[in-house]
Amino acid sequence: MAYQKEEIYDPDTTRKIAAHYKEILRLLGEDPDREGLVKTPERVAKALQFLTKGSLEDGAEILRGAMFKEEYSQMVLVKNIELYSTCEHHIMPFIGKAHVAYIPNGTITGLSKIARVVETYARRLQVQERLTVQIRDCIQDTLKPLGVAVVIEASHTCMQIRGIQKANAITTTSAFSGVFLKDERTRNEFLNLIRQA
Fold first, then answer.
1. pLDDT grade, residue 8 (50/70/90)?
2. What residues are annotated to the active site?
3. Known binding site: residues?
4. Boundaries of each GTP cyclohydrolase I domain copy (predicted)?
């Protein structure tokens, strides 16, 4: 795997978040000046900025960067798109995969742009239900396809390692528009395709 250059963070934002996190460590009974924790507030500040960077991005702009006229009118499906998001209720990760399909109406987009849209909305403080709808609406509103289908399957660490502590629980959400909503055959074709290995 190729080494990825570290993201560039706003120094002022990093400093302010780190100061708060240093105090949080104190409130938890830790010594933020001990060797293992000295750089932790800054690391956490950078991590939080990375995990929420999607708030500064525009999914529609991503799609508009690669829109092409094409008379293809069958389903386009990108499945098993890895997603990493942060639950806004506990600031803990949820991890899973998205399956996204659309039926073009004269316009297609680059396949990687679908994955980028998922990434943009996932990298925010989120709930899975909203994330599912935001992905659908972005594609529907920007490409104006005949329909969009989104299914997300995710594991929530706020359920797995705290609270109810159910490690194997998977949450599935779906959102449909256009022909996927109105036509059971089209919706079932999508659902059958995402079940296949």
1. confident
2. 87-90, 128, 156, 158
3. 87, 90, 158
4. 18-195
Give the annotated binding-site residues for Zn(2+). Answer: 87, 90, 158
Residues 95, 83 contacting (CB under 8 angstroms): yes
pLDDT digits (tens, 9 = 90+) for 126-157: 999 999 999 999 999 999 999 999 999 999 99
Cβ atoms 157, 94 nearer than 8 A: yes
Phi, psi of 13 (to 5 degrees): -65, -45
Which token pair is 164?
Answer: 């109810």
Please give the pLDDT value at position 9.
Answer: 87
Q: How far from 158 is each of 48, 94, 129, 147, CA to CA, in Å? A: 17, 8, 15, 33
140: amino acid identity, one letter: Q
Collapsed DSSP state (helix, strand, coil) of residue 3: coil
Is residue 81 a contact partner of residue 100, using CB atoms and an 8 Å limit? yes
- Output the pLDDT for position 83: 97
DSSP string, 85-143: EEETTTTEEEEEEEEEEEE-SSEEE-HHHHHHHHHHHHSSEE-HHHHHHHHHHHHHHHH
Q: Is the pLDDT assigned to residue 1 strictly greater than 90? A: no
Two structure tokens written together for 53: 């960077």
